[in-house]
Structure formats: structure tokens, C-alpha cells
Amino acid sequence: MTEEQVRQAYAARASEYTALLGSIEDVHELDRQRITQWAEPISGPILDAGCGPGQWTEFLHRQGTEISGLDLVPNFIETARIRFPDVAFAQGSLKALEMADGSLQGILAWYSLIHFSPEELPAVLAELARVLVPAGRLLVGYFDGEAGAQFGHAVATAYFHSAAELTGLLHDAGFDTIDVQTRQDPGSRPHAALSAIRR
Length: 199
Hints:
alpha/beta; Rossmann fold; two-stranded antiparallel ribbon; 7 helices; 35% helix; 28% strand
């Protein structure tokens, strides 16, 4: 799917998505712990890249981080601004971030890379690297599985990734992987979180 097709697919189901997945209270406690621990040592601006309706952006904002949210889908940005008026949100594409080189200390990409095809992903990771300072931190949430294999996502075509695949792609983009954590919940796809640092 093209980026525009993904945008349209999410826009058509934005209200449903927000109702089902837009509450921080409904996410797994391990995810809250993981993201909190990742953000704690970061001093300076963080981007929630692919923020959806903004629940993670607001979660970290409440913890005192300097964070803003970005999403491709205008419906999500409108909703996020209404729900969390004290947090900055903007519409935009991860393929072409309207930010200066080295302007961020951290990027949270929490399941926001899953709709990029294997052919698109290297350029997206390079764009994330561009806007991070050296030693800037990246946290990627994804579904763990056969690298590049498609699966039946409810909204738009999505892809599994593996730790080995992402580690290699991130290295080529200018990152070093720090660690990977995986989780298997009953009745769901395997989850994973990869933390990396900008060289």
C-alpha cells in the first residue's frame, strides 16, 4: 500500500481505533514500564513518531519529558489536540520529517513502522537517524516474526520484523542496537521492542 492508502485506511477507522486502542490504561503494563525506562535518561526533545491519537505522547508528557507527537492521519492529530491540549501535535510523514538535522534527543516509533514495506524501511530509518543527535535514542515497537512477511492487520497491510533484520537495517542507517525484548500474549501476535542509539 502507498502512504496515502495507509492514511486513508486509518482515517476511515480513526474513531474506532481511538476507542479500542487510544487509552493508556488499556495497554500492557510491561509496555508502560519499557517506554518509561527508555525515556528516563533522555534530556531534550523527543518525537512520538506515528503517535496516533496521542496516548503515549501524553503519557510521557505527564512524566516531564519534552515530547511532541507526529502522525500521518489528520483525524488522529485533531483528536489528540482535543484530548491533550497541553501537548504539541503535528501532521506529517516519517519519510520526510520537517525537522533540522540532529534536532532530537529521542524518537519513539511504537508500532508505527509496521506498514512500511521492506523496500521502504531503510529510507525511513535513515530519516529518523538524520534528525537524531549522535547518541540519540530510538525505541521501536513491532510484531516479531519472519522478516518482511505480511500479516492480516485490521486496518492496512503490515509486516513482521525480526530482531536480526532490524538490527542490520538500523546499523546501515547509523544506529547500534542496545537490546531487544519480546513478549508473547495469549491469542495475539508476538510483540517486540528494540532500543538503539545513534552513532
